[in-house]
Every structure is written in structure tokens, then in C-alpha cells.
Design a protein that fits this description.
By secondary structure, the chain is an all-alpha fold. The chain has one domain (3-185). The protein is 75% helix and 0% strand. It has five helices and no strands. The two termini are 33 Å apart.
Length: 186
């Protein structure tokens, strides 16, 4: 076996490994979010023992509970979409790597269209962003069900709970989208 040929394939093997690691990370994060959403769907929003609302005017209506369930389902669907695309890309990379095992010179060289890979990564990112957005909307409804409507006269606790959620999550999503687009252009 010629050592020059093995070194020639080194960057390709490293590149494939980086993609596989990134896809594993996306799958792990999406799995955790899907678990959180699934547990959120198991929670009963009409159980009076879980509410901290004192004022009758601050009780949210059934629309808030309906929106809570809808946003959880939308979030779950978005994370599931993202995870399925990530799994598909990961399998495509692994299959293309294993198809080249017979050729000693091309061991670990994955043959996959970069445009296809990039579109898949954008789809994964879009699914994760939409999943996080719907999850934030669901959490806002959880806060309203536990602490009272946002437009209630004494809604200080509700607003205090929502402000960090509305600032930090979109801020992190902007950073995430910028980094994905940066990686996409390289």
C-alpha cells in the first residue's frame, strides 16, 4: 500500500467525519427537544393544582390551552422532520463510505453530492429553528396557564418569566442561523 495515496485521502476522510459528527450533534439535540415536547404534551393544562393564579380575571381561556397543544405538536413535527433528514444524510454518508471499501485507494472517501448535502443541512437547520420557535410559543402558553394571562393587571410574574425566554432563545437562534449560513458558504 502506497503511503502517498493514503495521505491523499486524509482530508476527505476528515471532512466526512466532520459531517457525521455534526449530524450526530443535530440528532442528539433534536432528540432532547422532542423528549421535552413529548413530556409537555403529557401535562394536563386544566389541572387546577398546578396553577399559581390568584385573580379570577387572570385565568386564561381554553384558546391558550388549545394553542399550547398545537404549538407542541408543531414543535414535535419540526424536530422530527429535522431528525429524519439528519438520519437520512448520515446514512447516505455511511453507505457511500462503505461502497468504496473494495478500492484500497478510496477507503473512507464518501461520494455524495455537496449540493445535496448542503440542502440537507439547511433543511435540518430550518426544522430545528421552527421547532425552537414553536417550543417558545408553547412555553409562553405554559407560563400563562401557570401564572396568568399576559394582559392581566398583575401579570408581573408572567412577563418576568417570558422576557428571558423571548430574548435568549431568538438571540441564540440568530447566532445559530448565522453560523449555519457561514458554514454553508464555505
Amino acid at each position: 500500500m502506497n503511503m502517498e495515496m493514503v495521505r491523499e485521502n486524509e482530508p476527505i476522510r476528515k471532512l466526512t467525519s466532520i459531517y457525521l459528527t455534526a449530524l450526530d450533534g443535530a440528532l442528539n439535540v433534536n432528540s432532547l427537544f422532542m423528549l421535552a415536547v413529548f413530556l409537555g404534551l403529557a401535562w394536563n393544562p386544566f389541572d387546577p393544582n398546578y396553577s399559581l393564579i390568584d385573580d379570577e380575571r387572570c385565568f386564561p381561556g381554553p384558546k391558550v390551552a388549545e394553542d399550547l397543544i398545537s404549538f407542541h405538536v408543531f414543535s414535535f413535527a419540526s424536530f422530527l422532520f429535522s431528525s429524519l433528514i439528519a438520519l437520512s444524510l448520515k446514512q447516505a454518508l455511511k453507505i457511500s463510505r462503505s461502497n468504496n471499501r473494495g478500492d484500497v485507494m478510496r477507503v473512507m472517501k464518501a461520494r455524495i453530492d455537496k449540493t445535496f448535502l448542503r440542502v440537507g443541512i439547511l433543511a435540518i437547520s430550518a426544522g430545528s429553528v421552527f421547532g425552537c420557535g414553536f417550543l417558545v410559543l408553547a412555553m409562553i402558553n405554559v407560563v400563562q396557564l401557570k401564572l396568568g394571562k399576559l394582559n392581566c393587571p398583575n401579570s408581573n410574574y408572567s412577563i418576568s418569566a417570558i422576557v428571558p425566554l423571548v430574548i435568549f432563545v431568538p438571540g441564540a437562534l440568530v447566532i445559530y442561523v448565522c453560523l449555519v449560513l457561514y458554514a454553508f458558504t464555505r
